[in-house]
Amino acid sequence: MAYSEKVVDHYNNPRNVGSLSKEDPNVGTGLVGAPECGDVMKLQMKINPDTKVIEEAKFKTFGCGSAIASSSLATEWVKGKTVEEALSIKNTDIVRELSLPPVKIHCSVLAEDAIKAAIGDWKKKHGVDVPASEKPSH
Amino acid sequence: MAVKLPIYMDNHATTPVDPRVVETMLPYFTEKFGNAASRNHSFGWAGEEAVETSRQQIASLINATPKEIIFTSGATESDNLMIKGIAEMFREKGNHIITQAIEHKAVLDTCKNLEKHGFEVTYLPVQRDGRVSIEDLKAAIKPTTILITIMYANNEIGVINPIAEIGKIAKEHGIFFAVDGVQAVGKVPVDVQKDNIDMLAISGHKIYGPKGVGALYVRRRNPRVQLSAIIDGGGHERGMRSGTLNVPGIVGLGKACEIAQKEMPEEAARLLGLRERLRKGLEAKLDEVFINGSMEHRLPNNLNMSFAYVEGESLLMGINDIAVSSGSACTSATLEPSYVLKALGVGEDLAHTSIRFGLGRFNTQEEVDYVIDKMVQVVTKLRELSPLYEMAKEGIDISKMKWQTA
User: Is the pLDDT confidence value at B356 over 90?
Assistant: First the structure.
């Protein structure tokens, strides 16, 4: 299978690889997927409690090149956005940006889920209710 | 010496044609193009003579007689012919067939097809080392069993079955024994007499011969095996396989067998040396790598290894100047990880991280060293990217975690 140039670029130069402290009250952590399915994404965001702006985002992914690229792109996109803006990112945006083929659409779904899971975790830490629409679909 | 890229190390999938084989084949495309079935002119005679030479070369490699060799379009056809041919010919005698879980699809799907036509098939499980258990086999035999079909060596893990023992049991019970010999013939000594094999499927392109040609050994004495044909027509190949013979392909297959027989001891030792260099190199430089299948009963050119916490397809993407294959779901059409590794009891998480290295005649030590360095570099990079590796290093038991599966 041939990969798009953008997938190859993210795979070769993944953006924002790493981890933030899970204990930090301003950090939300999303861990989605499962090893037996061949994909696990961990997405973390440091969110400013006053401005609700995502100041930092880090990821680690076990998965194919498209999964790595989807999560790498997600960290790039959420950085500098507010929580509400980040929640409006759809998996189809990721599919379009990376030119993912149909068999790799689940990678983009997982990345969208990871964004929601990380923000959900942060909201929970701050005692905010997470509406069903913002919960990960998987 | 500089290594020429890309490196081909996927010799269980196919092999390049040996230049000596190509050279032998060439005249049969042009000046010696006759139909081997043309009995009344010299063009036909030249074709027939070439086909008979090939039969001799193949028979010699497996300790058979030339008349016991039938030519086919490849091992998938040979597998179909030996299984369906026996099933149809002996269905009055019984309808039970024994095979095993990690056969090639050419055998498994043929058996599944027969199940739709009133046959009963037992799929023996394999042990953790990838071999069939003799006790399981004995227990599966019934009065209605007409055929046991077990592969000589597996195409993913290279594990060699106890073929001589199985052959002995089949013979004692008067059951036909059909063997998919694709990965073993030409790589390790295969002797149809010693192993009591009644039918043996052979492929040209796995032994440095051309694609599109294969053979089937069909025993003629003790017992004489009769098969129903699956392709009808001009009655070629003693009526077992009609169709004009692919003379250039057959010439190539014969020459490939001749070379394999002559060079096997030396080649097997060399490939074993390279395989062990690869294994030791990877094990020395990487933690948490696991070999899939028996190391003791294994083809000299195979290594199947899981690189925990690194998904197979992303690994292949990082080593894109090396041609190998992976048991990862992402590399298969079905999105399921390897059924072979699953049958061995390898967890799905580790199956997704497996790589199959298939060494071959044209691989060099320099290439092996390059592969080791590249694998170490890419696995290390991807582990830095892997949340699972991070969790494992923190002492979290990943197998006990609750994952949100779709």
Answer: yes
Q: What are residue B303's phi and psi, to 5 degrees?
A: -140, 125
CATH number of the domain that residue B209 is part of: 3.40.640.10
Name the band, by pLDDT with cuts 50, 70 and 90, for residue A1: low
Q: Quick one: which H or E segment has residue B370?
A: helix B365-384
Interatomic CA distance for residues A75 and A91, integer angstroms: 13
Local structure of residue B331 (DSSP, 8 states) = G
> From the candidates A27, A68, A107, A117, which is the catalytic residue?
A107
Tell me whether residue A31 is in a domain. Answer: yes
Rounded to the nearest angstrom, the minimum Cα separation between B387 and chain A is: 5
Mean pLDDT of B343-350: 91
* Residue B295 and residue B252 in one domain: no
Under 8 Å between Cβ of B103 and B234: no
The shortest C-alpha distance from B320 to chain A (Å) reads 11
- Number of domains into which chain B is organized: 2
ipTM of the complex as predicted: 0.91
pLDDT at B402: 81
Is A81 among the domain residues? Answer: yes
- Indicate the pTM of the whole model: 0.93
Residue A134 resides in a domain: no
Bridge partner list, A44: A29, A58
What's B366's domain CATH number?
3.90.1150.10
Residue A91 pLDDT grade (very low, low, confident, very high; cuts 50, 70, 90): very high
Which single residue is written with the structure tokens 């890229």? B5
Q: List the one residue out of B288, B402, B289 whose CA is nearest residue A34.
A: B402
> What pLDDT, in 10s, does the model give residues B204-219?
999 999 999 999 999 9
State phi, psi for B217 to the nearest 5 degrees: -80, 130
Residues B236 and B368 in one domain: no
Residue A2: predicted pLDDT: 79
Encode pLDDT of B382-391 as tens digits.
Answer: 999 999 999 9
Altogether, the residues listed in chain B come to a count of 406
Which pLDDT score is estimated for A138? 62
Q: pLDDT tens across B252-268, in order?
A: 999 999 999 999 999 99
Question: Does pLDDT of B233 surpass 60?
Answer: yes
Planar angle of CA B116, B120, B126, nearest 5 degrees: 115
Quote the number of domains for chain A.
Answer: 1
Considering chain B, what percentage of its residues have pLDDT values greater than 70? Answer: 97
The reply to whether residue A34 touches residue B309, judged by beta carbons under 8 angstroms, is: no
Are B37 and B234 within 8 A, CB to CB?
yes
- How many interchain CB pairs under 8 A, A with B? 84
Parent domain of A16: 5-125
Please name the member of A34, A61, A62 whose beta carbon is closest to the beta carbon of B405: A34
Contact call for residues B42 and B186 (beta carbons, < 8 A): no
Picking from B275, B226, B241, the residue whose alpha carbon sits closest to that of residue B90 is: B226
Q: Shortest CB distance from B313 goes to which of A32, A42, A65?
A: A65
Burial B259-297 (b: 16+ CB within 10 A, else e): bbbeebeebbebbeebbebbbebbeeebeebebbbbeee
